[in-house]
Amino acid sequence: MVLRRAARWAAGAMAAVCMVLLLGPSAPSGVGPLARPLPFDAAEEVVPDRVGTWNICNPCGGSGLNFGRATEIATAAPQVIGLQEACVRDVEEIRAYLEDVYGLVYRVEYGTVLRNWNRCGGLPWWPGGFGQAILSAAPMTDRVSVEYPDGGSEDRGYLAVTTLVGGRPVRVFNTHLAQRRQGEVRAGQVGVLAAEVARHDRAIVLGDFNAVPHAPELGPMWALAPDTDPGCRPSAAGADACTSTTDWNSKFDYVFLRGITPRTHRVRPSPYSDHHLLHTDLARAGG
């Protein structure tokens, strides 16, 4: 296992170095000095029954940021991962690193809710797209991108696709709700999201909900589906058992599962975002 992982990384790292040498300044920045083996507990290849969610933080700076993000995703290697605060250019660079350095090929769908030069760069008259993204190792169909009627202090929405997880089709949602101290706005957003989720017997809802588990606005989601965190419940007492998903020791990030049973649950803190990468493996039978 270790030898195969090392060989995979070495081949990818050599490809990355060649890309830098051939393309020079046009190559993605940070490959050469940052390329390194994956951690000992990294997945060897995409895990077919694993899903994840990660607010990748924007705006965030630092050298080799997207390479670091790719390394975090490659370590978990989920079949599907939902990204929030995602700029299209950043996601394209992350995907390139995942494939060229780590040999992981992902398709992508975007749920852009705004174009913002300050957040995503680009030209003032053609700024970069910002919002949600879903990466999937399997093809995605029936894409729907919805902007909430009231985004609060910034436009927000959800992205939904149908894809395969664990070899079975499932509807996957990825959302980012209004910022903190906007509970009433989030309540309206959850109402829109929950009404759509309720139409599906099997659904996975990923995202940064910007609310702790016992926040009243999350009630409709809890009524439809439990979170993958086995001890986490929508009560003040139950919230004490919830694993934190942010640098400020709050649980804001969720994997709600409707008609699907979780098997494992892991939260991975990261230096590349103020949110932790959350992933879960789903039951392979009876779920």
Helix content: 25-40%
What is the SS-derived class?
alpha+beta
Distance between the amino and carboxyl termini: 29 Å
Radius of gyration: 18 Å
Order of helices and strands: HHEHEHEHEEEEEEHEHHEEE
Mean residue pLDDT: 89
How many beta strands in the DSSP annotation? 13
The unreliable regions are 18-33
Biggest sheet layout: 6 strands, mixed
Based on the model shown, name its key terms.
287 residues, six-stranded mixed beta sheet, five-stranded mixed beta sheet, 28% helix, alpha+beta
What does this 3D model show about the protein?
- The chain has 287 residues and is an alpha+beta fold.
- Helix content is 28%, strand content 31%.
- The chain has helices at residues 2-23, 31-34, 65-76, 88-100, 117-120, 183-197, 219-224, 236-239, and strands at 47-55, 78-87, 107-115, 122-123, 126-127, 129-136, 141-147, 157-165, 168-176, 203-208, 253-258, 262-268, 277-282.
- The strands form 3 sheets. The chain has a 6-stranded mixed sheet with strand order 3-6-2-1-13-12.
- The model is unreliable at 18-33 (pLDDT under 50).
